[in-house]
Amino acid sequence: MELVHTAEYLRRFVGGELTIAEQRRLGFPWSPALIERSRRAVGGTIAAARHALAHGTAMNLAGGTHHAFPDHGEGFCVFNDVAVAIRILQRAGRVRRVAIVDLDVHQGNGTNAIFAGDESVFTFSMHGDRNYPFHKVPGSLDIELPDGTGDDDYLQRLADVLPVVLSRAQADLVVYLAGADPHEGDTLGRLRISFAGLARRDALVIDQCREVGLPIAITIAGGYGRNLDNTVRIHSTTARIASEAALSTLI
Predict the structure, then answer these.
(1) Hey, is 122 helix, strand or coil?
(2) Most buried pick, 109, 192, 210, 215, via CB within 10 A?
(3) Which fold does the domain 7-248 belong to in CATH?
(4) pTM: predicted TM-score of the whole model, two decimal places
């Protein structure tokens, strides 16, 4: 954890010393269960990244907590699991360069802050321009979308830019944040992407990585649907597409 987060933040969070204001910024009341949940999310992303390097495709059914900064958490994000996983793999010599493809509807401000000025990590985000965080932290490549963006515009922009991202990144691994919150029924999303559009998005990212021989580790990131079943449906569809891609390499 200390490869990314300050010792002081870790000590205060684990010790239950966050102020009420800090807990409000985080979005969760502190509890011992929150410590365990947050640690496990990080562990899941580390495991997914290692598995992806060994087998090509892997997914953590948690993670994508991209609003966590080195010294604080915010926006429902305690620890930056993606950043921790990348730093662990880099330290172990498993990867040199990594590309982050962040398709949560909110920009990963914490992730961008962590990797600012680090050319070994390429951060790409396609997110709502009027959505949280209201102060964006520039990444390697940011595409801002207007409220109400629908399937056709969204998928065309992604199809146009993704080959550029993979070419510029020259990565050994892609970490994909497959947020459910661009969905048209999401309470915090402000976009108008359908179930089918999100499935096409996932297939596009996974297939592009496979075509160029890049391992891909997937996290679920955000999802705030009015109907929880819809959020579950989106995440499970991502998992199905990823598993089908992984199985196809064995046939």
Answers:
(1) strand
(2) 109
(3) Arginase; Chain A (3.40.800)
(4) 0.97
